[in-house]
Amino acid sequence: MSTMATPPAAEQNLAAKLPDETLREWLSDMLLIREFEVRSMQAYQNKKIGGFLHIYIGQEAVAVGAVAALNDDDPVITAYRDHGLALARGTDPKHCMAELLGRIGGCSKGKGGSMHFFDKARSMYGGHGIVGAQCPLGVGLAFATRYQDEVIEEGRSRHVTVCFLGDGALNQGAFHEAMNLAGILDLPMIFACENNGYAMGTAIDRGTTRADDLAVKAVAYGLERATINGMDVQKVYDGMKPIVEQCRRASRPAFVELRTYRYKGHSMSDPRKYRTKEEEQYYEEEDPIDRLANYLMTQRSFDGEAYEALVKKTRTRVREAIKWAEASPAPDLDELYTDVYVDTWGPYLGTSPPKMNDK
Amino acid sequence: MPRSIEFREAIREAMCEEMRRDARVFLLGEEVAQYQGAYKVSRGMLKEFGPRRVIDAPISENGFSGLGIGAAMYGLRPIIEFMSWSFSLVAADQILNNAPKMLYMSGGQFPIPIVFRGNGGAGGQLGSTHSWCVESMYANVPGLKMAIPFDAYDAKGLLKTAIRDDNPVFVLESERLLSVKGEVPEGDYLVPFGEAAIRRQGTDCTIVSFGRPLYFCLEAAESLAAEGIECEVIDGRTVRPLDIETISRSVARTNYCVVVDESWPFASIGAELAAQIHVLNFDDLDNHVVRVQADDVPAPYAYNLEQEMLPNARKICEAVRAVTYAA
After folding, report:
1. What structural domains does chain A harbor?
2. Which residue in B130, B230, B278, B318 is the catalytic one?
């Protein structure tokens, strides 16, 4: 087992050195996620979306900042609160919305739903519904990139996998098995724990030991660790970027805690009686979108007018995505029997991927 | 030239040949590398393929099963060995939720070309936790395929087919059969999925089974022949896909059917076979299908109790005599 030459420290102001254009894109992506989620909630209340709906509002900086620290072909995988990651990775909101509406134009052809967004072309390996179950899969992705790069292509390992998990997953066996495997097999991956304070309605310190410093979970498994402010996209980038590159170079795993907050309930049916209005208000004042917008308006060439224009453009984009999704037909009944097996046998009709815009 | 090799050597030969022809195939499991396999199935493989392709996993079934599925999502073709299928229960979420449903949930984007294989079945006085016959429970799940080899020839041919299949395949190898020798050709051959084999021809009663209980069926068929009852013994070979056509054609000739299944009777493969045969052969049958299954109790340790719990030749003979009104 190799160890990292030097522990990765969050480099100060990496994001601050990036061009205006990059930071404007981050703002645009965060606005897109928020607007998408607001409109998803409306659609849910209007009974256009079935099942469960887990809203990402408040956590936008995590997905956007972390994805910005990665290469496009670095695999990402997450749990069921997955809309933000897919959108950050560039999945078209029309395919995301169509998935929520259960239409054939969805990113999983309407067969996955809110919790199961996938986009192979953008190395987005899902949306997974069972808490913690994506962690061993993330280990497998990191194993596979290293195997592909080194054993098959006989080159250097050049990918990093980021496996996102909620704080609730910290108490699942799958998470601990995954951390141990990643450590023992020297895999280039980051367990990115989005600590939003609550596993459904259970405050983290009621369900998880050492809730004051989750990064210590890494110690027993020999992983590198970091704690990152997940409410500030620049800090997410500054924290993630050096660890990503360190894991890539050394082919070693890390665990990071991203401290964030979900403004809405666990799912749409959650009245949030387990926390105070004051607490919610505190975090809403820490809003990641306001923070970046303020930074851009005070430190960069961006003004209120440009911001309003961006907000408007985002609203239009999501509105058009909804229109597109509503026009997309429900899956043909034949789809019931496609994608069960790759091949065609008995009642099974083979498989075909969704028609999504090429990358 | 066919030679006689052990069942376990046939499994090893299938894995080695497939690993030589496709660099994406690797073997991961407990004690598969340095220990040379808990049952010596993978003996010598570490030496040939090295530690990057023959990998010792910690005792962490849920973790390493999920690792295999994640690697398959990326395009590799893992072989995951369970030391015993009994231990696969620890990995149930990964092998039942993720492997067989990923293609569907992702709308066709992520096939999972993976093989889970290892010892299955009871009969070794291992007590209840180590004597699982998982086939009925797991066969309930759409999206996976399942093969249960009967002899060394099928062990190699079915496993090679499994490794080349683009879907998750569960291969259940009876621990009681690992040392049994059989004729196995050198080099490449495949046993296709969904094609049952008639292990013994007969005209008076059809007996259907999978894997190890087939030996009891053949034993029973020999003693019944002495009584003048000629049984046709059919090896289903794969549970999913199931070759019900071959079975049904046989029942249409014999008009009687006994189904032998090592797992518990309730909601089982035996029950499924009986149901399908009753539908397909309603007008052919001169009696209802009779099932011989493990008794509906946990597997006991004591030798006499375990033997009594499992299907055996005596029970099969009794079933055939009863169904053919010879009793």
Report:
1. 15-328 (3.40.50.970)
2. B130
